[in-house]
Amino acid sequence: MGVRADGTKELIAMSDGYRESADSWADLLRDCARRGMRAPVLTVGDGALGFWKALAGVFPEARHQRCWVHKTANVANALPKSAQPSAKKALQEIYNAEDRDHALQAVAEFTKTYGAKFPKVVKKITDDTDELLAFYDFPAEHWIHLRTTNPIESTFATVRLRTKVTRSAGSAAAALAMVFKLVESAQQRWRAVNAPHLVALVRAGARFERGHLVERPEAQAA
Questions:
Q1: d(CA 26, CA 56)
Q2: Exposure pattern of 23-33 as b/e (b: 16+ CB <10 Å)?
Q3: Which domain holds residue 29?
Q4: Burial of 81 per CB tally in 10 Å (0-12, 13-18, 19+)
Q5: Handedness of CA 16, 158, 65, 38 (dihedral sign)
């Protein structure tokens, strides 16, 4: 799924493959490039290593944003159940912070609170801090769209319900065709991003600080 310059979301590509396979992801991304897609400014994904490896090979200039929903679940699963509610609240303090500086303060507080007892859990955040906080370099209106892969996850939730009912599509090709039609239909209900007029500026290389525009592309060129 991608966002066009007018702020609308669009299905870019779909393929069957191995989820963690860098080769499968690379084939999909190269197909996007062959069809004329430029490198995305920011790419949002979960922790699937194959995807990030393929992205670095096909679109090395694209920035990375790790999904906070997946990261939160990953952290919670590594903690005792008694510690999970407070840890989730501490993580919310990071990705709901008013800007990057406050988010970094929240990361430091998370490290201070959990570092002694759960150092491996803390590393799940500190090792990926740059990729977890990349969204702060974009318009504040877009942050809610960039922090997670929820638009894709919610679409596939509908797909999973349908495929469970049908049980078997008969062949891999038929299954892929059915999933494509379901996602194509869902695409009509995808909501455009907030402040769509800012997407073109992001695409053109405008610089944002604390969620606000500070430098337009023409100023950078000058």
A1: 9
A2: ebbbebbeebe
A3: 1-148+192-222
A4: exposed
A5: positive
- Going by C-alpha positions, the residue among 210, 2, 212 that lies closest to residue 103 is 210
Residue 215: inside a domain, yes or no?
yes
Closest of 24, 70, 29, 16 to residue 50, by C-alpha: 24
pLDDT at 169: 67
* Cβ atoms of 111 and 124 closer than 8 Å: no
In this structure, is residue 201 part of a structural domain? Answer: yes
Instruction: Tell me how far apart the alpha carbons of residues 61 and 80 are, in angstroms, rounded to a whole number.
Output: 39
Q: Is residue 57 in some structural domain?
A: yes
In a domain, 127, yes or no: yes
Q: Minimal CA–CA distance to 21: which of 41, 51, 45?
A: 51
215: left (phi over 0), alpha (psi -120 to 50) or beta: beta
Rounded CA-CA distance 132/95 in Å is 8
User: How many domains in the chain?
Assistant: 1
* Structure confidence by residue, pLDDT tens digits, 180-200: 888 988 898 899 999 999 999
R_g of the chain computed on alpha carbons: 19
Look up tokens 């209106």; give the residue: 141
Chain segment 123-149, per-residue pLDDT in tens: 999 999 999 999 999 999 999 999 999
